[in-house]
Specification:
Elements: E1 27-36, E2 42-45, E3 50-53, H1 61-67, E4 75-80, E5 94-98, E6 113-118, E7 121-130, E8 134-138, E9 148-159, H2 162-167
Antiparallel strand pairs: 1-2, 1-3, 1-9, 4-9, 5-8, 6-7, 7-8
This protein binds zinc ion.
C-alpha cells in the first residue's frame, strides 16, 4: 500500500533504459524511492520502480518539480514541505458521522478506511473513534502536515505514447482500458 501516488504503478520487470533522456514534460519516468520523516524513520519504500507521466500532476508537486532535468541513473535527496506534499493537517476534516449511516451489522473499528461522498467529491476517511451514536472519522491524508524526505533514483526515462499523453498518465502491464 502506498499513499504517494494518485495512480500507484508497479512494474513487475522494469528494465533500465540506458538513454540519456532528461526528465521533462511528456516523459514517462520510472523511479525508485525511500521516504523518511523528520526523525529519519522510514515511512515507505518502493519495492519496485514506479512509473508516472511527468508534468501531469501524477505525483505531488514538490517531488515532480525536483525530478525535472534528471536522467536515468541519477539519485537525489528531495525534501518536500506539507504545502507541496499532502497539505497541512486540517482539523475541520475530522468529523462525526452518525452510527446509523453505517451498516448496522458492520463492526466499526478504529483505523478502518471508508470512502465517503462530500461536496468536494469522494474522500477517503479513517475511523478515529467509535461510540454507540457516532463514528469519528479523519479525512486528512495520512501524511498531511509531514515534511517528506525522499531519496530517489531515476531508473528510466522515455517518451510517453500519444495515448498516455491523451490520458494524462503512464500505461503499463495491468493497466487496461
Ligand atoms: Zn490510460
Amino acid at each position: 500500500m502506498s499513499f504517494l501516488f494518485v495512480r500507484l504503478i508497479i512494474l513487475p520487470s522494469y528494465k533500465e533504459i540506458k538513454m540519456a533522456e532528461e526528465i521533462k514534460k511528456g516523459k514517462i519516468v520510472a523511479f525508485s524511492y525511500e521516504l523518511k520523516d523528520d526523525d529519519g524513520d522510514l515511512i515507505e519504500k518502493s519495492e519496485q520502480p514506479l512509473e508516472y507521466l511527468h508534468g501531469s500532476n501524477n505525483i505531488i508537486p514538490g517531488l515532480e518539480r525536483e525530478m525535472e532535468g534528471l536522467k536515468a541513473g541519477d539519485t537525489k535527496n528531495i525534501t518536500v514541505s506539507p504545502e507541496e506534499g499532502y497539505g497541512e493537517y486540517d482539523d475541520s476534516l475530522v468529523f462525526d458521522v452518525p452510527r446509523e449511516n453505517f451498516p448496522k451489522e458492520m463492526e466499526i473499528e478504529i483505523g478502518m478506511e471508508f470512502k465517503t461522498d462530500t461536496d468536494d467529491g469522494e474522500m477517503i476517511v479513517v475511523v478515529n473513534a467509535v461510540t454507540d451514536e457516532a463514528v469519528e472519522v479523519d479525512g486528512n491524508h495520512p501524511l498531511a502536515g509531514e515534511n517528506l524526505h525522499f531519496s530517489i533514483k531515476v531508473e528510466g526515462v522515455r517518451d510517453a505514447t500519444p495515448q498516455e499523453l491523451q490520458h494524462g498518465h503512464a500505461h503499463h502491464d495491468g493497466h487496461n482500458h
